[in-house]
Design goal:
The complex is a heterodimer of chains A (314) and B (313). Chain A is built from 13 helices and no strands. Chain A has 314 residues and is an all-alpha fold. Chain A has a domain of 188 residues: Orthogonal Bundle (MetI-like fold). Chain B has 16 helices and four strands. Chain B has a two-stranded antiparallel ribbon with strand order 1-2. Chain B has a two-stranded antiparallel sheet with strand order 3-4. In chain B, strand 3 and strand 4 form a beta hairpin. Classes of the chains: A mainly alpha (314), B mainly alpha (313).
Chain lengths: 314, 313
């Protein structure tokens, strides 16, 4: 099925003109064209990555001018035995799980409804999509205003609908609510992303399949679970992959919303890493931390892509 | 489609679907409308309880955004000459005098310079690379393409540690050039992947005809392929621009003063006793409106842009 997104990611380019008009000049042009990009990416991505790996075995501190000692794997040992690291991993896992849960649920529902092709659905889709494109830092900062007890719009709306006094709770100030405050804003921002991908999935299903099911007298409910859901699943899983990677890296929105607080209840790994690297200036330690995070996201993503390919083949 | 289609949703279904989606849209747009409205509130209205939906519009937020002010006493106010401009009048009404421009204008300008500079470079190099990936047999092509994509998986803070050290060595910390180079590299992955998709869609026959007509490969590229890819290039450019425009993590860690962009600056706008919300909202409004307009213009290519070209409609 050539319409599948995963195919396209790994797809090699169609056999080009090169096949027919071969010559050294083509190859020269190819390298001339690809060269600058590769060089720039090497300089800004690979070289720093190697540097980071190297630093991770040292006790280097970027704000001091002292000799650097190689200390082997001690940074890694410290990070993995530090309870703060595991707390921030836990905070990240909570954030990841619930944001993806709500975004998939609401995003799919919205896509399903929009696919009913009611009048003006294009306009409303565009409006729904707006939050996703905006600067998370700027919007996150403004949400702290919406979340203020008493004067905040969010608290007021909650009071209006539930009767809970607006000044009696603080979304970003209380330990029990703060993890949910970031889930709410992230869900608000990124549900449209899942929605758009699901919509593309729903629209890729040919009408003829439903017509055939109708002839077989399959109920609407059965059609939904045996046709719609399996056909959209690869798209949905792709959306989850994107959201998973993005939210594992999450920094700007949460830093502006809660700053990792209260205490360290919303200190995601990126925020923890930033503190180690740019506040405590434990550069060697932070480099090891960065390597661990990168390996984690890369490993999880690879396993996930394997699962995704299995679903696709079914 | 005929009226007897079994797949066409019924009138009632459409009505319910429309109602639910419109309700969601209205709820989701509220925070954005609230930002715009707060920008036009006086500081008192902004923090009133219950939150005010109807208020007397004021430009105080915008005046506060663009100026720095000093507080004056009422007795001093009598000794001053009358205000010459409307914005001086607004400042005077709240018991202050304007002592100079704020840094917002300069931060905004940085965002424009860095955004457009990095977008131009990312599109320039990205188009070349995408063309080569699309049309030639580049050795280890799939590996290179995956490598280009994988650079986006790293947490920005992890990249920022060596970048900070590297920039310090090269004297690029807090410079526009440093930020332009960094954003170019980050955006390259997006531009190569998206543009490759767009160029793949241009039929080979056009180029073959041009080559047979005696065009060189290079002429065929810029006289045949580039014009065909113009729409794709334009929408890719907007995606790159939006990324650079919105980026916060690198900006807050690698710039502090002269090259700082607007996203790290806006949250630091302080009034008397805390954040000056109308000024923050005014700054956010000016900053967010261009992106909203671009989003509406881009709506046809949106899905493609946000999935690196993995899903096309």
């Amino acid at each position: 099925m050539s319409g599948n997104p995963i195919d396209r990611i790994a797809q090699a380019t169609p056999p080009g003109v090169a096949k027919r008009v071969r010559g050294l000049s083509d190859r020269a042009i190819a390298w001339l064209f690809v060269g600058p990009s590769v060089v720039l990416l090497l300089a800004v991505n690979i070289f720093p990555l190697i540097w980071t790996i190297n630093l991770s075995f040292t006790n280097f501190k970027a704000n001091r001018n002292r000799d650097v000692d190689y200390i082997g794997l001690r940074n890694y040992e410290r990070i993995l035995t530090d309870s703060d690291t595991w707390l921030s991993m836990q905070a990240t896992a909570h954030f990841l799980f619930w944001t993806i849960f709500f975004q998939v649920l609401i995003g799919f529902a919205l896509a399903y409804l929009i696919n009913k092709k009611f009048k003006g659905n294009d306009l409303w889709t565009t409006i729904i999509v707006l939050p996703m494109m905006l600067s998370p830092a700027v919007v996150g900062n403004f949400w702290t205003f919406l979340y203020q007890p008493q004067i905040g719009l969010f608290n007021y709306v909650v009071q209006f609908f539930t009767g809970i006094d607006a000044s009696s709770f603080s979304m970003i100030g209380s330990v029990s609510l703060a993890p949910w405050s970031i889930v709410i804003v992230d869900t608000w921002m990124w549900t449209p992303f899942v929605m758009l991908i699901c919509l593309a999935g729903l629209r890729s299903i040919p009408d003829s399949i439903y017509e055939a099911a109708e002839c077989d007298r399959a109920s609407k409910w059965r059609q939904f679970w045996t046709l719609t859901v399996p056909m959209v699943l690869p798209f949905l899983m792709l959306a989850v992959l994107f959201r998973g990677i993005e939210n594992f890296k999450m920094f700007d929105l949460v830093v502006q919303l809660t700053g990792g607080g209260p205490g360290s209840i919303t200190t995601l790994t990126s925020i923890d890493l930033k503190r180690e690297a740019f506040e405590k200036w434990r550069t060697g330690y932070a480099s090891a931390y960065a390597v661990i995070l990168f390996v984690t996201v890369f490993g999880l993503a690879s396993i996930y892509v394997k699962a995704l390919n299995k679903v696709k083949e079914r | 489609m005929s009226g007897f289609s079994v797949t066409e949703p019924s009138k009632r279904q459409k009505w319910i679907a429309g109602l639910l989606v419109i309700t969601y849209a209205l709820v989701t747009i509220m925070p954005l409308l609230w930002i715009i409205a707060t920008g036009f509130k006086s500081p008192e209205d902004a923090i009133s309880y219950p939150p005010k939906v109807v208020f007397e519009p004021s430009l105080e937020g915008y005046v506060n955004l663009f100026t720095t002010r000093t507080r004056i006493t009422t007795s001093m106010q009598g000794t001053l000459p009358p205000p010459e401009t409307w914005y001086e009048q607004i400042a005077r009404d709240s018991g202050t005098i304007i002592s100079g421009p704020s840094r917002y204008g300069q931060r905004f300008l940085n965002s424009i310079v860095i955004g457009f500079g990095s977008t131009f470079l990312a599109i320039f190099f990205g188009t070349l690379a995408a063309y080569a990936f699309s049309r030639f047999k580049v050795p280890i092509k799939d590996d290179l393409l995956f490598f280009i994509l994988s650079t986006r998986m790293m947490p920005p803070i992890a990249v920022a540690i060596p970048m900070f050290l590297m920039f310090r060595q090269l004297g690029l910390n807090d410079t526009q050039l440093g930020m332009i180079l960094l954003y170019t590299a980050v955006n390259l992955s997006l531009s190569v992947w998206l543009l490759k998709g767009f160029i793949d869609e241009i039929p080979l026959e056009y180029e073959e005809a041009a080559l047979i007509d005696g065009y060189t490969r290079f002429q065929a590229f810029y006289k045949v392929v580039l014009p065909q890819a113009a729409t794709g290039i334009a929408s890719t450019a907007i995606f790159c621009l939006i990324f650079a425009w919105n980026e916060y993590a690198f900006a807050v860690l690698l710039t502090s003063g002269s090259a700082q962009t607007a996203p790290p600056f806006i949250p630091t706008i302080i009034g008397v006793g805390g954040q000056d919300w109308p000024a923050v909202a005014a700054g956010a409004t000016i900053f967010l409106i261009p992106v909203m307009i671009f989003t509406i213009l881009l709506r046809k290519h949106l899905l493609r842009g946000i999935t690196f070209g993995a899903v096309r409609k």
